[in-house]
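Handout, section B. The chain below has 231 residues.
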Amino acid sequence: MSSTTAPPPAPARKRSSAALGWVISIAFNVVAPILIYNHFHGHTSEYVALLLSGLGPVLDIVIYLAWHRRADEFAMISLLFVAITVVVSFIGPHDARLLLAKDSAVTGLFGLLCLATLAAPRPLMFYFGRKFATDGTPEQVAWWNGLWQFEGFRTVQRNLTIGWGVGMLVEAVVRIACVYSLSHGTVVTVNSVLPYAFTGVLVFWTMSYARRAQARGAARAALATATAETV
């Protein structure tokens, strides 16, 4: 199929289903960890409070698996990073600064993973896009997978993967620098705000870049159609 052909639109149910998926993911991956940590902090050790805060993302994965009755690459990667966090928390030295730097190391590892998948048949952001742009039904998964045949779509997914990989590495470097240059109390605040700030910037960039790429693809397709009609 010609690379100038515009990708087909999503199935009609995509927007509402994807919105519900976003709400669930934000609730369990952003809100729940903060609430759990704040509830247990001061009533138990720092390590236990941090470990319990990881239950939110785990519940999100469990709900996804129960809803769709299948595992996807996003769920597997999420489980991997939860496992890494737990292992590091248990076996790592009980040093306050190392504990604060732990999440930065995991963030940096995610950035490296993004860049490493550029050598794979499909980059990591392709699977993340499928997670959040569809509701996981076979119809919508097939629609998303079918977009890979378009050159423009492939380029967008690779560029998004590069952007997220570099962005996560920059965040990790900034956070580690803060850990070893600021007071513990200040670092706790930075660690609570900085990840969401970086993620927010990357999400905004992702949406803006994807919209511009879609508009360029539609323009090329319209030009190709008009040219074909005049021949």
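Note. The chain has a mean pLDDT of 77. Compare this with the example in section A.
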